[in-house]
Amino acid sequence: MAEDGRAEKDATVETKAKRQGGFRTMPFILANDFCDRLANVGFGSNLISYLTLQLHLPLVEASNTITNYHGTANLTPLVGGLIADSFAGRFWTITFGSIIYQLGMVCLTLSAALPSLRPPPCAKHAADCQRASSTQIAVLYLSLLCTSIGTGGTRPCVMAFGADQLELDAHGRRGAKRPKWDFFNLYFFGIELAKLTAVTAVVYIQENVGWGWGLGVPTIAMLVAVVAFVSGYPLYVRMPPGGSPLVRLAQVAAAAFKKRKAVVPDPSLLYEDKELDAGISTTGRLLHTDQLKFFDKAAIVTDGDVLPSGQPKLWRLSTVHRVEELKSIIRMLPIWAAGILLVTSASHNSSFAIQQARTMDRDITPRFKIPPASMLIFTNLAMLLTLAFYDRVLVRVLRRFTGRPNGITHLQRTGIGMTIAMLANAVAAVVERRRKAVAAASGLLDSPKAVLPMSVFWLVPQYAIHGVADAFMDVGRMEFLYDQAPESMRSTAAALYWLTMSIGSYMGTLLVTIVHEKTRRSGQWLPDNLNRGKLDSYYWLVVGLQVINLVYYFVCVKYYTFKPLETVGGEELEMHHGNGKGTEDAKKQDANFK
User: What is the pLDDT of residue 141?
Assistant: First the structure.
């Protein structure tokens, strides 16, 4: 009877498990992310217009406010990722992050809708407008802070949570790899679709109906996102958190330091404990590598390292798997850092490029003008088309030549995107020089609010090329971080992607501030009146920095070692231990991961 009861219970658990995970969960997860991005981009893409036209802030101050906001919004995911990996789990981190984000959007909508929370409109022919008071600015900052905190819960977890549904089946076995990588393309496709909706419909409402409704629509979308995500709760595979990854990394570092004078023995003699690592290595343990050998000392067993119960003292002794977790993170950091300047180089798309568009002829029909912020539509369209072409055509063609399921490696994909991004900024510099020439020829150099006889569609190439570059760079970087991060740190790894955005945004602020200060006496590069500025010189400066960054990236890729993972049931490939110069057979084995 007891055996029958256990069998019935096991059958019930198995039946329930079979209903969890897989592509059936994608509508709930991607709907949440779609509405989240619609809300974020809906007010973020046109924030420069809100700050300059509604709150009457100077251009440089408004630009720095935006980059600082983006920096903060992309810094909080690091905290959110650690919370999810440590104790909360991804589902609850996403849920509470979405709720806090919703509160920020409500405050932001109220600040735009209530006259007391914004300065009075400018007089028709006034040269100077009353800027927002300190109280009104404080309300704005409080709203942006709430959305930034909420973002910290959603951004690092949604991608990893979605991939979890395809990574493992109900019994913990590896799922098919191809669907998992399809998910990354689908994930970014959904993001770009949300951005496309935001920079068309939402921006149009902001420019032509009013900012109250223009921010109200994203607020309602965010409410839909929370409801959609929570309603899918019974279907989700919810991976249990594996404890604080930072604590484990600190334990390895501390143990290695305590044994710094010890001699590392043969790798086969280093400490292993499958039972201890079971919760953080469900898809296979990391194998020993010959790099960063100092940390191997943490896995040397010495007197006093083990309790009478047989359990290790984790601040004195670590397993090889835990040592390799730290090594994996350290090896990833140089390539991760190359993404910082990518963000810096594109930060002007949401500030200076929009101000350029405002000075140009935006007429589509006699009664309709394209809003300046809607120029971002060409970036979104280009990225959507490139993602579709890449996934459905290019991968299949490249697979015939490379033999890799994904056509090219994550790192190759990122490098191609970085190269294309340089072209985008070079084109931007050429177009800006042309725009200033038209202003001079029309006698409008001192009329910053005048519309130049030059179509806004001159800006389309730079926006479109940025979109093509992002389709390669963004997906490639996210795939790399997810694939190479230790299994128990994937939310944290996704947070590293957003941390790149954060530091890149702050670097954008720093770069603009330095350029603004250094060119104050010799001729401002970035004045409020762009017709008298040298924005084209700023673009060329960014191109030069990108060239340096690309060389640095290629050097890092050349010497990068991919993480080695043990074989699990014949489904997981054991990867080579070399420094990127291993045998051809080993490299072929490594194809899925590069």
Answer: 86
In a 13 Å sphere around the CA of 150, the CA atoms on its Cβ side amount to 25
Q: What are the residue ranges of helices labelled H in 347-459? A: 352-358, 377-389, 395-402, 410-441
Q: What is the DSSP letter of 361?
A: B
3-class SS letters over 205-226: HHHHCCHHHHHHHHHHHHHHHH
Indicate if the pLDDT at residue 426 is higher than 90. Answer: yes
Beta-carbon neighbour count of residue 367 at 10 Å? 6
Helix, strand, coil abundance in the chain, percent, nearest 5: 70, 0, 25
Average pLDDT for 361-383: 84
- Rg from Cα positions in the chain: 26
**Residue-wise pLDDT tens digits, 452-506:** 889 989 999 999 998 999 889 888 888 888 888 887 777 777 778 878 877 887 8
Residue 522 parent element (H or E): none
The predicted model scores a pTM of: 0.71
Rounded Cα gap, residues 143 and 146, in angstroms:
5
Contact present, 191 and 154 (Cβ < 8 Å):
no
SS3 track for 89-116: CHHHHHHHHHHHHHHHHHHHHHHHHCHH
